[in-house]
Amino acid sequence: MMTLRCTKKLLKRMDMTPNDVAVALPSTTALGDWYANLLFTRPEQIVLCVNGKSRLCVLVPAKNANSIAERIQVGIVDILREIGISEDQINREKSQMYPLSYGATTGTPVTRSVIGTMTDYTKHLEYYLGLEEMTLDEIAKILSDIVCGPLNYATPINVAKELLAVD
What is the pLDDT of residues 2-27, one digit of tens each? Predict the structure, then answer.
């Protein structure tokens, strides 16, 4: 099971409230919970997703609210493939993504740290969105390769690789 912890803005876009997601279990995937926020960017709105354990980044368009979660799951698989994770490891993680559970982004110290990372990514994102020749997937990979203080200055890509490594 994968838990997608959404901000109030994103929950509202998906026709949910924090009360609808008050009881959310932690993810059983190797990467753990994902956190998502709706960004009002131009020319299109974007959903920024950040993994709680690795700080890996996924960006998807915010259109069609009823399919945002599915596009996030596809985006997770795409970024894992892009950073060189083996198909066996990807398939293991993908099989654990279902069912999908929703939660809110409030309540724990981990959440505050992840929200801080999301704020940093949002500032970087403003620059990269100005470079019109870049796709959201390319930008997500660049953001995932920035050293991150909460990860002891490792990159999210390297941490994700460690978390998904076969024992």
Answer: 999 999 999 999 999 878 887 778 88
CA–CA gap between residue 80 and residue 97 (Å, rounded) = 13
Residue 119 Cα distances to 38, 66, 68, 72, 94, angstroms: 12, 25, 20, 19, 27
The Cβ of residue 136 has, within 10 Å, a number of other Cβ atoms equal to: 20
The count of other CB atoms within 10 Å of the CB of residue 157 is 22
Per the listing, tokens 């200055």 go with 153
- Residues 49 and 59 sit within 8 Å (Cβ to Cβ): yes
Q: Report which of 112, 110, 105, 139 is spatially closest to residue 123, judged by C-alpha positions.
A: 139
Question: How many residues make up the chain in this entry?
Answer: 167
Q: Supply φ then ψ for residue 147, to 5 degrees.
A: -60, 145
